[in-house]
Amino acid sequence: MSRKIKVLQLQNRYNVNASDLAEQVIQGLPVDRFEVTTAFLRDRPQPGGPESRAPRSVYFDFRQSDLKGLRLRALWRLYKLCREERFDVVIAHRFKPMNMLMLLNRWLRIPLCIGVQHGIGDFDRAYRRWEARRLLTSNWRVVGVSRAVRDYLVNCGAGFDTRNTVQINNAIDISRAESLQHPRGQARAMLGLTPEAFVFGTIGRLVPVKGHIYLIEAFARVQARYPQALVAIIGEGRARADLEAAIARHGLQGRVHLLGAKEDALQYVRAYDVFVMPSLSEGLPLALLEGMSGHLPVIGSDIDSLRPILEDCGGHLFRSGDVDDLAARLEQVLELSPQALREEGERAYAYLCEAHGIIDFRRQYLELISEGTPGSTDA
Prior knowledge:
Blueprint: E1 5-13, H1 21-27, E2 34-42, E3 56-59, H2 72-85, E4 89-93, H3 95-108, E5 112-117, H4 126-135, E6 140-144, H5 147-155, E7 165-167, H6 174-180, H7 184-191, E8 198-203, H8 212-222, E9 229-234, H9 240-249, E10 256-258, E11 274-277, H10 286-293, E12 298-301, H11 307-313, E13 316-318, H12 323-334, H13 338-355, H14 358-372
Parallel strand pairs: 1-2, 1-4, 2-3, 4-5, 5-6, 6-7, 8-9, 8-11, 9-10, 11-12, 12-13
Helix pairs in contact: 1-14, 8-9, 8-12
Organism: Zestomonas carbonaria
GO molecular function: D-inositol-3-phosphate glycosyltransferase activity
Pfam families: Glyco_transf_4, Glycos_transf_1
């Protein structure tokens, strides 16, 4: 029997939770064939907090300043870890870990390097494209987490092409998600929402790029005609004060609920009637998939990463940042019959199972790693 394939999974910040897709990659690698180490450039779990399922975790505890400029200290410590452990595969999530590995692998010569890109725009800068072209070698594979991210990478001029770049859709564990979800009435009671309301809901950090302000402004245009309708937003962040000001300006107290951050927020999705994703930019938002797991109709902006999903699942699209267009979509959904709403939710759920299931996600990463590491398929 061949020795185990040694894999390092490198992430920018510690963020281990039940929905963490890096953890799902680990879960898809058989323990009799792979030995996995997970490493985080910043942060570590609090006492009693969740830890990676990898047998070994490394917490570098770098400060933000350590990861700017030349980053010599951070690069040296990462180099020492890789040199000592002699990894066969390194999976680097997001731009910064991927860029550091591209620099170091000129000396490390790790057989297989996988960069996972979760969003659009990291290679918009000319210098980053030039650097990637110089550092990209034949042992690199790059993953886009959606069709839009993959297409961006292939067309951005950084040296990525259809030979070294693949699409592996972000996914969720649908069975787990459904097992966590509370029934509609219970979920509403836990969130303080009235049983008879029609609830437009979303989940996401309260930051401008998530577009919550457009949802509030759009709702303000239709709410007078639909007194039973509410908006509920699960999440916390620096934009809370701006959102509260908009709620006050339109007199929407009691009609728009900022519910704060919730652990495993997907457990509450059945409290919603419709899931809304008004983002200005996304890679592939797990929150939207979580909404679909609750058999909900979906509304989203027409940004590149959301458009194909919403088109394929039968969702409602609006022009990103266009309050009037979003208001029209809200009104369109409010006019649907209960049967039509149920049918839309079932179509979204069926699409989720077909395109974003966790079993297929794990399989694709296993195949990608196995193809790039000769001998990894040995029994």
